[in-house]
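dumping this here before i forget
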Amino acid sequence: MILKKLQKAFKVIATNIYDRFSYDICEMSIGDIMPKRTAIDSCQFTTSTRLLDVKHYEQTGQTDFPFQNTVSRKLWGANHQEERGNRSFEDLIISYKKNGYDIKSLFEVDNQIVLLNGTHRSACNINFNYNVIRAKVL
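structure:
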């Protein structure tokens, strides 16, 4: 049991080190990470729910983020940190309104341009019409 946990931890560490030294940075359209596919992937789905929540926040000012929290409760169960997540998401939306897209904030995509990290930011980019993003291609 302990050996399996150590192997898993080593694999995660090795992957993170490899990713840090082997990625390329490029600019792309926000639409490049949201293309039509035969089936919607999980990041496209969660970006869509986050976009609905950005629009809900702008219309009502409410920070309950019903779509994000419904999905996150199902995905994470007891590990879902709703209050912390809501505060962070609201801070991100306010930052986008005030400062726009931070070009130093890199999205992570795989070599097929599938989004791996950045669903909250991609929803904000779409909502606030920041069409060009910078991404790490892993």
